[in-house]
Amino acid sequence: MDMIHLMILEKDREYGRALGKAISNLHNEFRISLCGLEDRKLGQSGFHLVLIGGYTKGDVAEYFSKSDHIVWLVDERRDDLIKIRENQETQNFQIYKYSKVSEIISYLRFVYGLITGRKEILKSTIKTSLIGFYSASGNAGKTVISIGTARELSRYHDKRVLYINFDEIPTTTLYMKGGSEKKNIGDYLYYLFEKENGSICSYLDSFTYADEYGVNTFYPSGGRNDLKQLTREEIIHFLMTISDNHYDFILLDLPDELSDITICLLELCRKVVVISEDTDISRYRKKIALECFNRLIPVQMEGKTLDVINRSTLYSDNDECGTTSFSHGKGSIRIEKDNDSFCSRENTVEISINHIFGLGIKKIAEEIVKHSDY
């Protein structure tokens, strides 16, 4: 990883020295320079970020230009720790001076990733493992596989899991009972972006509910998915905020279109489960989609896709069916066609992970846990 050159310009020199030492001890990718207003280093180029505390903008105006990326240490706690205000010319980055050092580091790395476009930096600031589920073909079983995997991780691996659906019209309530229309994803996004109330948004349990397997999710607000209206920066902000709620995994049911938001989500995911049906058309669509991903984000996608063939009629780990190359040589996980694991009842579909369908889900969950940080 490249070194991040950080200047700390703090009026309280003892605090600045202690903060610099703490950052250096926790993360060796930072190279720290401590400065005062009398220091010759002020005005010099070569610093990726400048962390300023105790001074006003007027105090330091003559030393910095608009091209310098400044993060201000503020004395009052913000309701929203990660508050970014953008316009055409400048970005105003602020963080509470007495936040935990780990939070300050996470924020600095996020700002660095934002200004440089380094997606791996942005990803590493998100504490929870993001797992994406993608299919280039409609009706390939993406949602039932992602929900089934979430339940397997929750019940049999004792993980705290949050499931989020990014489809245009989410079908979450079709498969997961519970929740209330009075507290839904639209309400959460309203408090996060309109009210900018980080205190309320930090209590995610107030906006989510758990199914009988212990998997948490947001209740959809009805109509078009509110998440589809977010910008790239808002998506990252949203994911960083909810990842602070002690989840082990956040499973993202990704949209099938090749949009900028889909690409952004794929880059942030630590593992991507790519799903197709056991048909030539579905496999061909998956091949084209993966070629597109590898062209747009070649480094980030290397080795992190998990190939899954749903409704397989020929269950064989040795049967390549033209798919092995799409999973980076690790082979495909096949899920046999199994109608008995699904039961329609009272406007809902019950998914069982205790039969044939569950055998394939178990393999997916094992691969996810094996390659996670937990």
How would you characterize the overall build of this protein?
This protein is of the alpha/beta class. It folds into two domains: 4-118, Ntrc-like two-domain protein (Rossmann fold), CATH 3.40.50; 129-370, 3-Layer(aba) Sandwich (Rossmann fold), CATH 3.40.50.300. Helices cover 35% and strands 22% of the residues. It is built from 13 helices and 16 strands. The protein has helices at 13-26, 57-60, 101-116, 119-125, 142-156, 172-175, 185-194, 198-201, 232-242, 260-268, 280-296, 298-301, 356-370; strands spanning 4-10, 30-35, 49-53, 70-74, 83-86, 91-96, 129-134, 161-165, 208-210, 216-218, 249-253, 271-277, 305-312, 333-336, 342-345, 348-351. The strands form three sheets. The chain has an eight-stranded mixed β-sheet with strand order 9-10-8-11-7-12-13-14, with helices on both faces. A hairpin with a 2-residue loop joins β15 and β16. α3 (101-116) packs antiparallel against α4 (119-125) and α5 (142-156) crosses α13 (356-370). The two termini are 22 Å apart.
